[in-house]
Structure prediction request, 479 residues.
Amino acid sequence: MYIGLDLGTSGLKGIVIDGAQNICAEATAPLTVSRLHDGWSEQSPQDWVDAAEVVMVALAGQIDLAAVRAIGLSGHMHGATLLDASDNVLRPCILWNDTRSALEAAELDAVPIFRRLTGNIVFPGFTAPKLSWVRTHEPDLFEQVAKVLLPKDYLRLWLSGEHVAEMSDAAGTSWLDVEKRDWSDDLLAATGLTRSYMPRLVEGSEASGTLRAVLANRWGLRSDVIIAGGGGDNAASAIGVGVVNGGDAFVSLGTSGVLFAASDAYQPDAASAVHSFCHALPNKWHQMGVILAASDAMSWFGRVLGAAPDNMTAELGPLQAPSNTLFLPYLGGERTPHNDSAIRASFLNLDHSTDRNAMTRAVIEGVTFAVRDSFDALTSTGTKIERLLAVGGGSKSEYWVQAIATVLGLPISIPVSGDFGGAFGAARLGMMAAGGSVSDVAIAPKIAHVIDPVLALQDDFLSGLSSYRAAYKALKTLA
Prediction:
């Protein structure tokens, strides 16, 4: 058997699969985000360890884990987890959706070597500008930093005692030479660091260490359980749904939204605000368009109304044409295609007839239009998207997925286990680290059903898209 642990922003998920990739057990533990100031987003790394302990104990309570051969890790990217020389955590982790380092990101992005070596804009959410922010605003703390780890790699340190990162997650730091798949000494130097601050690099399908004996004994595992390299959350989700070759793609409606396309070659276009990263497999890359608030936008609106998002979407009935009501989902700024940390969300064109369902549809449509923005950015680089799947919690809403299918003009497949894409992909990477081949392990998932576009509404959605794009331009003049 193989375990996959997926460290998400709102919770940690764990699954156990057998050699035939059947899910034998699953468990979750919730996590919360601290937002002390506008644009800030932090979590305590100890909360991740506590959540992982809860999940592992729950899994061990459901099934005997003695047959487990490997554990794979997935997690939210870009977070700056700062450790001293004794591996003590120096401050809460600055998360992927934290935008406090917008000034530092712009300064690094203006240095040509960053885009040239990383293939990406230096976004405020990336790791390198966060270290520049800490260096400026918390200099005493910066002097104590001995290691910088990404969130899932802090879990790895707890599980194995090893400082290790893998290529897909490391590619989102702005310190990796993405084509060469190695840390860049020049990029590190630009933020006052050296290679000694970085963890050792492995591929996601390789072994990174073994489980510590004290944890193996606690959970009833063998003493030689492998900890796989794993992947950043989206790369791991791609492995989970078999998106590994050029032409394959998926849309993820998690806390953030992602349009992810696999590539057999490194083909960056930083100016488009498309992310070009290493995949979690050797000699594979991928491109992503990233929306900072996808299901997070619906969760926010649900909190405002005191309603459950699942109930809100279930009340909508069949897909309708967009109304005049617009929602721009920029609750914490936006990445693709705008690279705009200052823009904020807005409802537009509210009137006396606007009710709860109309506003719920507007939130869904706003995220849908943002997905189309990412689609256009990816395809402008020459990327072909021939097969599209939907994963993440938002994919449980057929209304939402059909809206995306309609604005893209593509059918979208729903995997049977779409809500556990990251954990499932992490477990698959564990299988590979234990000796399984990519072709045997990273196969396309069983499809629950296919959602087709409503062609009769496509012109209406494209008209709504035009209004959405015009609204962003207009709001920018007020910022």
